[in-house]
């Protein structure tokens, strides 16, 4: 019994230490925003890597999700004779929840893993030490540009994902479910409120911050060798995904709880 | 001059440094020898501030390293890492000119490139190499690029971490000769860690034998063979029998 309690205690302490360590890491990253120098070249490169190159995967995910959502809502709504709600529910579902969450998860899979692997490899091959000896702070040079780029790029990806997802729903609605195109669009536009869209973009920014922070944190704390980098990559994706779901719930409570 | 006084460092239960005392005179070339895991790299990292000692003091040119401003302090150093530690995402010339493209030593891009090409030439690499990426180079060429980066800003102190590890004997000889030439030419203080006795004889003015977290012997390289120290004798002759356990 004592051994079991000790084991639980160790796990809890270790989890708390990890939370504290991630929080300090995130705070230090943000604090570098206020302290020059800022590495613009690394920021632009990160913006292209995280934003531009994630467009296809986010767009495709949103397109098929929008289409599937239209089919599901039509099937469910038809039980109550409420098929007409398809355009409005697809729109609200995409912009409030599915656009930000799926966009965030796809970016987590693509970007958190790549950041953790890149920085982890740099650590293992002493490139991080080399940066320090060359009077360059790794947090400023590696972490801040990536975190800032992800925080700014993911809302844009979410906006694109929202539009593509709604378009996917529109295509299925018009071509498969027999909706009139003009009516479908009118229902979508009439039903959506500005806050529906803006709240999703705020979520996107939060998810972008989480994804890049977890990628950088696990990369910087990577263990030795290929196994260490592999473990860092896996931890980055898993922790970023779980934190996205947790943050999504908290933000939804903040934004929409009555 | 670099001076280490009673440096201790522990990682978990592993007491790596147990009171290292070492003096490297200005303008001289000191080589630290010792088996794997004896704390040679940790000693270098303590001087650079990459690892914080648990106890003891380190002085560089009479200044305690804890009291100095980090950036100007590090600008006095150049370092060649064991695996070269070149930045994969940057072409060779930007690796070499890294320090010259940012921070206090920043120069215009064209000038930084010119200096990088000059330093590449100094280590025996052609200007065509400048625009290649590190992954396109052989191990020996990467080491030379690492050496060019270490000397790019004309540092007062240069550290070499296992400069010939993984290289064939001919390339090792080339790197050893380059290090000796460059250190003499620049008048820099050099601190090298290596297992390679050919390197020791080619590079060192003085040698320090590190074992079990302390300096067991230190003296001029010419006295190394007649030191009478059983640790040094076993190490330089590569004997399995002696005070250094073969299985560590």
In summary, what is this structure?
Chain A is mainly alpha-helical and 258 residues long. Chain A contains nine helices and no strands.
How would you characterize the overall build of this protein?
Chain A is mainly alpha-helical and 258 residues long. Chain A has a domain at 39-59 and 100-167 and 192-256. Helix content of chain A is 85%, strand content 0%. Chain A is built from nine helices and no strands. Chain A is globular. Chain B has 248 residues and is α/β, with parallel strands linked by helices. Chain B has a domain at 87-154. In chain B, 32% of the residues lie in helices and 25% in strands. Chain B is built from eight helices and ten strands. Chain B has helices spanning 40-48, 70-74, 92-96, 109-122, 139-151, 169-186, 197-203, 230-237, and strands at 2-11, 14-24, 29-33, 55-60, 63-64, 77-80, 157-161, 189-193, 206-211, 214-220. Chain B has a six-stranded mixed sheet with strand order 6-7-8-3-9-10, sandwiched between helices. In chain B, a hairpin with a 2-residue loop joins strand 9 and strand 10. Chain B is globular, with a radius of gyration of 18 Å. The A-B interface holds A 37, 39, 122, 125-127, 129-130, 132-136 and B 45, 48-50, 70-71, 74-75, 77-79, 81-83, 85-88, 98-99, 102-104, 149. Chain A: It is found in: Cell inner membrane; Membrane. Chain A: Could be part of an ABC transporter complex. Chain A: Belongs to the MlaE permease family.
């Amino acid at each position: 019994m004592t051994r079991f309690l000790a084991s639980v205690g160790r796990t809890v302490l270790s989890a708390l230490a990890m939370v504290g360590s991630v929080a300090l890491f995130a705070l230090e990253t943000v604090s570098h925003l206020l302290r020059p120098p800022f590495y613009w070249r690394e920021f632009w490169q990160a913006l292209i890597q995280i934003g531009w190159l994630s467009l296809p995967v986010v767009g495709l995910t949103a397109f098929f999700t929008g289409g599937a959502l239209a089919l599901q809502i039509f099937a469910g709504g038809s039980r109550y004779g409420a098929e007409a709600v398809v355009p409005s529910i697809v729109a609200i579902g995409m912009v409030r929840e599915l656009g930000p969450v799926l966009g965030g998860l796809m970016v987590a899979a693509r970007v958190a893993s790549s950041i953790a692997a890149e920085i982890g490899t740099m650590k293992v091959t002493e490139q991080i030490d080399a940066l320090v000896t060359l009077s360059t702070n790794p947090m400023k040079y590696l972490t801040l540009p990536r975190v800032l780029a992800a925080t700014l790029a993911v809302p844009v990806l979410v906006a694109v994902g929202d539009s593509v997802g709604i378009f996917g729903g529109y295509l299925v609605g018009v071509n498969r479910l027999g909706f009139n195109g003009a009516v479908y669009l009118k229902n979508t536009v009439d039903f959506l409120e500005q806050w529906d869209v803006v709240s999703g973009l705020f979520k996107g920014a939060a998810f972008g911050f989480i994804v890049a922070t977890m990628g950088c944190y696990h990369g910087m704390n990577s263990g030795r060798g290929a196994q260490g980098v592999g473990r860092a990559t896996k931890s980055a994706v898993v922790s970023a995904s779980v934190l996205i779901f947790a943050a999504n719930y908290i933000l939804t409570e903040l934004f929409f709880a009555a | 001059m670099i001076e280490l006084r009673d440096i201790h460092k522990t990682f978990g239960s592993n007491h790596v440094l147990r009171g290292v005392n070492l003096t490297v005179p200005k303008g001289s070339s000191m080589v630290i020898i010792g088996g794997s895991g004896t704390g040679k790299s940790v000693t270098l990292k303590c001087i650079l501030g990459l690892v914080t000692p648990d106890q003891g003091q380190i002085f560089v040119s009479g200044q305690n390293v804890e009291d100095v401003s980090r950036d100007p302090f590090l600008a006095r150093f150049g370092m060649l890492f064991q695996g070269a530690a070149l930045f994969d995402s940057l072409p060779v010339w930007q690796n070499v000119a890294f320090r010259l493209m940012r921070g206090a030593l920043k120069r215009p891009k064209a000038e930084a490139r010119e200096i990088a090409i000059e330093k590449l030439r100094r280590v025996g690499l052609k200007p065509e190499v400048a625009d290649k990426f590190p992954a396109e180079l052989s191990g020996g060429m990467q080491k030379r690029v690492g050496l060019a980066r270490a000397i790019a800003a004309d540092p007062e102190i240069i550290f070499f971490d296992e400069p010939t590890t993984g290289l064939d004997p001919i390339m090792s000889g080339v790197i050893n000769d380059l290090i000796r030439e460059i250190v003499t030419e620049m008048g820099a203080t050099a601190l090298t860690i290596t297992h390679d006795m050919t390197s020791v004889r080619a590079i060192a003015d003085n040698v320090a034998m590190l074992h079990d977290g302390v300096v067991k012997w230190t003296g001029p390289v010419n006295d190394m063979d007649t030191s009478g120290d059983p640790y040094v004798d076993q190490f330089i002759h590569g004997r399995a029998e002696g005070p250094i356990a073969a299985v560590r």
